[in-house]
Amino acid sequence: MSSGIAIIHENAARIADEMEARAALLGLEVSRLGNGARLVDAGVRAPGSIEAGRLFAEACLGGLGRVNITSRPLGPATILEARVAVDRPLLACLGSQYAGWRVKTPGFFAMGSGPARALAAIEPLFAKLPLASRASRSVLLLETSTLPGEDVAHLIATRCGLAPDAVTLVAAATSSLAGATQIAARSVETALHKLLELGFDLETIVSGAGDAPIAPGHPDPLQAIGRTNDAVLYGASVSLWVRAEDAAVDAVLRRVPSSSSRDHGRLFHDLFREHGDFYKIDPMLFSPARVTFLNERTGRVSSAGTPDEGMLRRSFGIA
Fold this sequence. Notes:
single chain, alpha+beta, Methenyltetrahydromethanopterin Cyclohydrolase, Chain A, domain 1, Methenyltetrahydromethanopterin Cyclohydrolase, Chain A, domain 2, 2 domains, 6-stranded mixed beta sheet, 13 helices
């Protein structure tokens, strides 16, 4: 796994360069903070776009995944959908895409994704998996309703061992088009994180692909968070190409989908209001609705879980 880890930093930086070059067409606002850090507003004050969300998601994946946006029917409506295909999913999804860095300073909070996480390596995940790395520049992508300032960039650069002018921060609110799009592109990542919690050998996963609806935005931040989570819990389907023993797949198969959680069957917004804390919700809930294992070693295809269009329509307000 150590070979080639650093590629995620340069890949994401090149995607950020493209975002800056195409900023006007993508609905982005790009600036330099006082300490030299580059800030890309993809959906906080800037309007953003579908393409901005797609590039945001590919940067989150360290350039090791391909994201496509299409449409899908949902009852009488037609909604957007994000489809993702990932090679080297352990590195791309957990070493980069997973939103595991809680970035906090006075007056600012964001969930951080992207390859800069592997430079800071402050999350427990990096003690379990050989994913930490070094680089000369990197990118952190922030899910936040507030644009970061110099203090945030300084904190991130210091934790990453970089000068501030070697750091790019890309920010989008959950309710924005880019924000909702990049969350929908996390279908494979949520499956891998669940499998990590279940003790499955993630190095046996060769590639992954998934799809999930892009949740409609909502002016209430908690409703927006609820919809984006429901999109994955009740709408995402993931396929994983593995080289494993069938017994290893059988041991986790029915525990991977969100339906294995005691909190399944309720809207995420309602769960959040009841518990009052994101981290008090059953962690086993954070999974795609359906997972399929395609086992190259034995030729067997195994699947569990079912998407729930009724829950999606309730969440999205589709009569």
